[in-house]
Amino acid sequence: MLISNFWHVFAAVLPALVILFYVYKQDLFPEPKNIVFKTFIFGCSIIIFLNLILNDVDAFAENFFEGETFIFFDSFIRAAFLEEISKMVIIVFFCTRKDEFDEPMDGLVYGVAASLGFAAYENIEYVLYALNQPSFEIATIRAYTAVPLHALCGIMMGFFNHAEHF
Per residue in 80-130, pLDDT tens? Predict the structure, then answer.
């Protein structure tokens, strides 16, 4: 069981690490690995903040919305807005404060690191618990859908943060 879960977690995290490695290698003037790693870990830690507020957000949605309005709120406010704002906070309050944040590609690297940190943790949860049993199928599907989308959102956030930074 433990070995099986290891391979499922590995399959869940691997796409995020591959994309992060690719983006990091595209930078002609690479960022310090420790800052990129910290940004990735901070991205993983977003889940702590989200777990603190999601119960209240869910209760609010269940009390005030139903049908398609509930689905809209759940998809675009609860999930997308809260997640992306949390990632943005990491980029704005941690990454842009670094002296190393000095060129356009830096925003992309840090944005991708924060986004893929969250995507890796979220992917682990989906792979291990979505079907009430670990699933390589979920890992494969999310490797081609959700993880690259998180990376693209990180690229956009990083680009626009760099534009604001200068």
Answer: 899 999 999 999 999 989 999 888 899 999 999 999 999 999 999 999 998
| Half-sphere exposure in the Cβ direction for 38 (13 Å, CA) | 11
User: What's the CA gap between 57 and 50, in Å, rounded?
Assistant: 10
Residue 138 has pLDDT above 80, yes or no: yes
Task: Please report how many Cα atoms fall inside a 13 Å half-sphere around the Cα of residue 51, on the Cβ side.
Answer: 9
pLDDT digits (tens, 9 = 90+) for 51-90: 899 999 999 999 999 999 999 999 899 888 999 999 999 9
Q: Is 91 left (phi over 0), alpha (psi -120 to 50) or beta?
A: alpha
Q: Within 10 Å of residue 78's Cβ, how many Cβ atoms? A: 19
Q: In whole angstroms, what is the distance from residue 12 CA to residue 3 CA? A: 14
| 164, containing H or E segment | helix 146-165
67: left (phi over 0), alpha (psi -120 to 50) or beta: left
* Spatial distance between the Cα atoms of 41 and 65, rounded to a whole number of angstroms: 34
